[in-house]
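User: Please fill in residues for this 166-position structure.
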């Protein structure tokens, strides 16, 4: 078997392992913190700039489209799964470990949030950062994985650009 095919399979495996670990970490963190935060009436101040909160996001980033509950639940879940399938096909063609990891993070984050939408009708966000009176919208492990994954995709594009277009 050619080395490139074997290498490609190992990169797909790396991406799928990262995806699976991301889903597991996301769901465990949500399971643990939902119980903890719910027991504390929805908010736990951890530091002067970080809280654990209970936020149910029925929309997408920053709560956009949250007015359409069923569209958000099923439409956004379907869209996230379609994107995940597309990312899987991209993963099958990657040539760099960083891109394989990045796609795994994005896929795992997307699936983690889809699980919430199907189970609860909304995504459970619990991490709340704030400073100088400004609160960043609450987020979770899946959201963090997506952001880091997208950042790595961009970084990979800058560092591993093999297209030498004129």
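Assistant: Residues filled in for all 166 positions:
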């Amino acid at each position: 078997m050619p080395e490139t095919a074997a290498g490609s399979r190992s990169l797909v495996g790396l991406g799928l392992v990262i995806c699976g670990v991301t889903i597991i970490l996301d769901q465990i963190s949500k399971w643990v913190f939902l119980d903890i935060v719910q027991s504390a009436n929805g908010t736990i101040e951890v530091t002067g700039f970080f809280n654990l909160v209970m936020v149910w996001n029925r929309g997408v980033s920053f709560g956009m489209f949250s007015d359409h509950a069923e569209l958000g639940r099923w439409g956004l879940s379907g869209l996230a799964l379609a994107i995940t399938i597309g990312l899987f096909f991209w993963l099958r063609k990657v040539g760099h470990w960083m891109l394989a990891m990045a796609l795994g993070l994005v896929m795992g984050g997307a699936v983690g949030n889809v699980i919430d939408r199907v189970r609860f009708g909304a995504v459970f966000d619990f991490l709340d950062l704030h400073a100088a009176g400004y609160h960043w919208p609450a987020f979770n492990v899946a959201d963090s994985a997506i952001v880091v994954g997208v950042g790595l995709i961009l970084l990979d594009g800058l560092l591993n650009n093999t297209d030498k277009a004129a």
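For context: The chain has one domain: 3-159.
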